[in-house]
Design a protein that fits this description.
CATH class of the largest domain: Mainly Alpha
Strand order of the largest sheet: 1-2-3
Largest sheet: 3 strands, antiparallel
Helix content: 55-70%
Distance between the termini: 51 Å
Length: 222
Amino acid sequence: MDHAPLAAALGHAFADRGLLGVALTHRSFGVPNNERLEFLGDGVLNCVVATLLFERFPALPEGELSRLRASLVRQEALHGLALQLGLGTHLALGEGEIASGGRERPSILADALEALFGAIYRDAGFAAAEAAISRLYQPLIDALRPGNQNKDAKTRLQEWLQGRRRPLPQYRLVEASGAAHQRQFNVSCEIAEPAMTTTGQGGSRRLAEQAAAEAALQMLQR
């Protein structure tokens, strides 16, 4: 497959095209694969996003900067950017992953995007990786409005209850199903006052808890 359009969207021409190929290879396809580059890219991404936020919001305290960074480097944000790039069509996947929808799976796409950042870093150094990440992330940075809306649902729910001196919610795993590479979690969020229980589903327990907390917030704010 011609990966030139993907490289152009990233704003980087690879001197070592082998690195690009490895970054796009999932472990289900074979070895070498992109797991080590993903590890490297995760570190580079966190550093660049932290720098972008530090410069964009000079008056924000560390806690708020950390929350903003977490919202930008989590799987959901990376998945959205990967979809914009059409990354799924470029991935080398095993037949089983292809059959089970791996080209659209958020975790696979997010990991591959981090691997691409790692590959750019290895190919041309930190400045090149910083330029590629900034190119993708700048619209997201510009759209940020620091404040409550950037906190995740569990944090907002906890603050809502604490502000009214009410007991904190309890999260319980209701069910975990699916194959190891395609797990689905169902979690309940139980609140004592006012008495209510909501549920959430997601590809990880954390995502399911966030969904359950969001559902609880919507009920409380009606």
